[in-house]
Amino acid sequence: MKKVYKRITVKSLQEMKDSGDKISMLTSYDYTTAGIVDKSGIDVILVGDSASNIMAGHETTLPITLDQMIYHASSVIRAVKRALVVVDLPFGTYQSDSQAALESAIRIMKESGSHAVKLEGGKQIKDSIKRIINAGIPVMGHLGLTPQSIYKFGTYTVRAKEEEEANQLLTDAKYLEKIGCFAIVLEKVPSSLAEKVAKEINIPIIGIGAGNKVDGQVLVLHDLIGMTKEFNPRFLRRYMNLHDDMVDAISNFSKDIKKGSFPNKNEQY
Ligand code: KIV
Q1: Mean per-residue pLDDT for 233-254?
Q2: Which of 3, 47, 200, 204 could form a disulfide with 73 if both were Cys (CB 3.0 to 4.6 A apart)?
Q3: Are 159 and 183 part of one and the same domain?
Q4: Residue 230 included in any domain
């Protein structure tokens, strides 16, 4: 029988992997949606730096700042009772040196009250990851397509299709496990490679565009509920078409105002 968790911790996620229970993870950047996501039983809420695209309209995740991530994370944490809340360290706050990385992670934990941080990259950021973990802060890794490196990759296409990159990814994943990461997000890689990583590594592997042979799945909330319309990767399953429903509702509201039918007698004092 599946264990019921009142509160998700990094230990719960490991237990889920060990017992073969899949882990659900979804983004949220604000109080209202975080409350809904948490009530829906999602295990991990990611305050992703995709907020840079989704909330602020930037083309990439690079511009979002540490202060902005802390603002989003503090709004999320106020709504959450059960899920583990993981926050992305934004671009430029951990790549320069491990002292800067530690200070960024501490600010996120102290000022937002979140439970863990996520960093993109493998062995090249090992000193930062080790230092953060040594300070008692749980770290989630992120390999495969790492959007903070988009200008190095050039495109958002599937990563690690070639043997050399696939081997490097597996080596990095093993390394992240060895230095103490509690889980790894694997983004947009062939499902056969993701399956191999999840089999060879004992910590949970959470996929996005990585097939279903991993330990859990993550999506961006606004994609799942269909608020975004232009983003249509193969891995995305839309559960709603909220964009069109909102346009209908809001245009009806506007029409009602123009016709003078809103507010009616029962909607006034
Ligand atoms: O920032 C984000 O939303 C992410 C997910 C896509 C994994 O990193």
Answers
A1: 98
A2: 47
A3: yes
A4: yes
Q: Which residues are catalytic?
A: 187
Query: What integer best gives the mean pLDDT of the chain?
Result: 97
Is residue 1, in this structure, part of any structural domain at all? no
How many other C-beta atoms are found inside a 10 Å radius of the C-beta of residue 107?
A: 16
Task: From 37, 208, 217, give the residue whose CB has the most ligand 1 atoms within 8 Å, as the site to mutate.
Answer: 208
Contact 88 CB / ligand 1 (< 6 Å): yes
Cβ–Cβ < 8 Å for 219, 26: yes
Peptide bond into 233 cis (omega under 30): no
- 112 Cβ inside 6 Å of ligand 1: no
Query: Per-residue pLDDT averaged across 163-169, rounded?
Result: 98
List pLDDT tens digits, range 194-214. Answer: 999 999 999 999 999 999 999
Residue with the nearest Cα to atom 2 of ligand 1?
Answer: 48
Q: Give the tens place of pLDDT for each residue, 98-134.
A: 999 999 999 999 999 999 999 999 999 999 999 999 9
Do 118 and 231 share a domain, yes or no? yes
Q: Is residue 65 part of a domain?
A: yes
Range of the domain at 197: 10-238
Q: How far apart are CA 57 and CA 64, in angstroms?
A: 10
Residue 267, pLDDT above cutoff 90: yes
Domain count along the chain: 2
261 occurs within a structural domain: yes
Beta bridge partners of residue 47, listed in sequence order: 87
CATH number at residue 66: 3.20.20.60
Alpha-carbon dihedral angle through residues 243, 244, 245, 251, given to the nearest 10 degrees: 110
C-alpha 45 – ligand 1 centre gap (Å): 10
